[in-house]
Amino acid sequence: MPSTASPRVSSLSRQNRGPAAAADNRRALIAAAREVYAEGGLGAPFSAVAKRAGVGQGSLYRHFPDRTALAVAVFEDNVRGLEDDTAPADRTIDDLLDLVVEQAVVSTAFIELITADLRDPRVAGLGARFHDLVARVVERDRDAGRIGGHVETEDVTMATGMLATELARSDPAQRPAVAARARALFRAAFAPR
């Protein structure tokens, strides 16, 4: 005897996996947030993230009660990527700046939000991790003679922040040229004397 259940209802019940879907939903929300805020900036509705991820508003708020929580999750992934990519001994400040350029172009809306909430403890932890990875790269470059002894971790941290902020403010078509100009300035400032 054929089923009388609506195909739509049965497919919906298969889609709702409840708590088992939590990790997948979180990943989908983070990916959607990157896209939504890259396209629409911080003014994009928070609800657009849930819609793009294909999850309900309740799931969005369970995982991320506010925009800062969502931004921290996105930047947690970015910092983890920076840590992994700068870990090999042959990675340099130039490699770090390349990565910052890649992330800034994709996540421009988040830069503004994160820099506005520097006192938020969720943001401070990411800042400390970023500082630590920059310190490792600076020490490595200094030891290899690629940068001068005058270059401090805070100089490179400031340079990455300046670069990311300038890219966020630039017209997307101009970002490669802006990044190249900034990189040339940093190379000259960091060079051994």
Key traits:
193 residues, mainly alpha, Tetracycline Repressor, domain 2, 2 domains, 74% helix
Can you walk me through this structure?
There is one protein chain. With 193 residues, this protein is mostly helical. The chain has two domains: 20-65; 67-193, Tetracycline Repressor, domain 2 (Orthogonal Bundle). The chain contains ten helices and no strands. The relative contact order is 0.10. The model is unreliable at 1-14 (pLDDT under 50). One of its GO terms (molecular function) is DNA-binding transcription factor activity. Residues 23-82 form the HTH tetR-type domain. This is TetR/AcrR family transcriptional regulator.
CATH top level assignment of the largest domain: Mainly Alpha
Quaternary form: single chain
Main sheet? Answer: none
Q: What separation lies between the terminal Cα atoms?
A: 85 Å
Region (Disordered): 1-20
InterPro entries: Homeodomain-like_sf, HTH-type_TetR-like_transc_reg, HTH_TetR
Biased composition (Polar residues): 1-16
GO molecular function, one term: DNA-binding transcription factor activity
Brief account:
Pfam families: TetR_N (PF00440). With 193 residues, the chain is mostly helical. The chain is 74% helix and 0% strand.
Architecture blueprint of SSEs:
Blueprint: H1 7-15, H2 22-40, H3 46-53, H4 57-63, H5 67-86, H6 93-106, H7 108-116, H8 121-143, H9 153-169, H10 175-190
